[in-house]
Task: structure prediction
Amino acid sequence: MLSKSGKLLLLLIGSIDLSTSHKSNNSNQLMQSNFPFVINTWPFVKATEKAWQVLEKTDDPLSSVEQGCSMCEELRCDGTVGWGGSPDENGETTLDALIMDGPKHDAGSVAGLRRIKNAISVARAVMEHTKHTLLVGDAATQFAVEMGFKEQSLSHIDSVNRYLKWLNSSCQPNFRLSVSPNPMTNCGPYEPIEPSKKSDKINVNINQKSHDTIGMIAVNSQGNIAVGTSTNGAAHKIPGRVGDSPIIGSGAYVDNEIGAACGTGDGDVLMKFLPSYQTVESMRNGMSPSEASEDALRRIVKKYPKFMGAIVAVDKNGRHGAACHGLDEFQFSYASRKTNGINVEKVKCI
Result:
């Protein structure tokens, strides 16, 4: 399990072996004992509780994920989800979100959403009211307004103060590379210079307090799955930056016959590896959720040894697991018919 110092969380739901009636019966019994089931990255227990309440009442995993993530958006979980957190270089908060429906293998997402608080719900509107999958920036805002969402400022006194502190600290931390003046000691405007061959693209300032995506998986009583993510991205990012959270296969992924996964951490690295997709595919090939999550992270660490992130997973047999790297431990929360309320677990990082 993962502790609150971890950063990437993946949820998976694995395949059921139907090759024999004996295995089929065992799988069905396991599913019946564990499902419905909700799990999410980090100990965002209010979000878990909301998702669980919706799932128990409606048996609708899509609405469970939407309303669970919406709760974190409203609560501004850790200042890294929802409005009023993670200002960019211009001091503006923008939002990214993804939702994916397992039975239909359909999805909707938004990135760089401006002036709309309900990112996960706008992502669902993209899925249900368009033939597209991803909308971005001001155009996504225009679509949201057309769908009835209220346009309003995403600033909060916390984000304003954080932005001013950043300006007064020579714009540190900074995501710029190979520009002048030196971005490690100066604010912009910047001009490009010859790229350095030794540039380290690991975001050392990505940590729990600067970037906690909520990734959530819900499984109903029939074993149908939905996944979702929501975040306000990396603090002090370059305007226009999009991380892994709204990218299908990176921030989250579901195959309704196999399982689902969600991640959190350094999104600029994560999206180069599609770890949620990889985790699900590894479960398809027989790995447990924990094994698949760890395998996906080891593929990343091989190329980026200083990377930080985590994955949580649940398989269709009702098992769940998680893995992390770059932290001591990582926490996640979950609920099922077997738990007495919301459980928080932690896992040591590899």
